[in-house]
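Quick start: load a record and inspect it. Here is Methionine synthase, vitamin-B12 independent:
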Amino acid sequence: MTQVATKQKHFDIVGSFLRPEELKQAREDFSNEKITKAELTEIENKLIKDLVEKEIDNGLKIVTDGEFRRSYWHLDTFWGFDGIKHTKQEHGYIFHDVETRNDSAQLDGKIKFNPNHPDLLAFKYLQSLVEDNDEVIARQSIPSPAQCYLELVRGPENVAALQKVYGTDTDALIHDLGLAYHDLILALYDAGCRDVKLDDCTWGLLADPDGWALVKDGFDNLQQLLDLNLKFNNEAIRDLPEDLRISTHVCRGNYASTWHQRVVMLRLPKHYLVRKTFKHTT
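Running the structure step on this input writes:
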């Protein structure tokens, strides 16, 4: 039976840390073709190593690479799957008085796991930093399958692209997206990962009436979409190794210290937590 995190901890981390100025400058230099990809990777490696040492020095037993190789907390993971491409929308994500960049993810084929997925490559370096330390576990945080699905239906162009590939066959979509995630998690496990955190803003989004209004197209009621999101997540975490710890982070979203959803903690138990539990056995 896969371990679903329930044991109380005094503190924990999701995995994302503020990017150092050196990293932000390196990304800008790479974008402007002032440095090569290899030079950017070298800087990332150095800063990740520094971060891991700080995490350990501060008593963390579960460490991450800070997501220093990602441009977004979620989109890079989606772009790493076969069948999902990087696109732009008219608008970015709307936070409280702030609009982000307008990147998105859109289907251009059947969804499949990519053996060269960037999250897998990133984890292998992280694992190399702690593999000789028996007291520390390397965590890989990834956005949830449900989060990926909501991105694939964010806006009419994304919806049209999804329907072009899968039509009305929701079961096939659940299977393919779930399997791509399942294969990624197993590949992480084979690389030494024993702790995966699913970063998931979907429940907060759907608990906010304003958020629900943004994504309800094609669904008759909120519970229908909640149940679908649960199916996506459960398809990904079924039949995993017994010594792999799976946990989730439910977030109302933040960008530059601004928030996306409101009244989440008041509504979330009513809509979800008292009705469903993670299915972690078969």
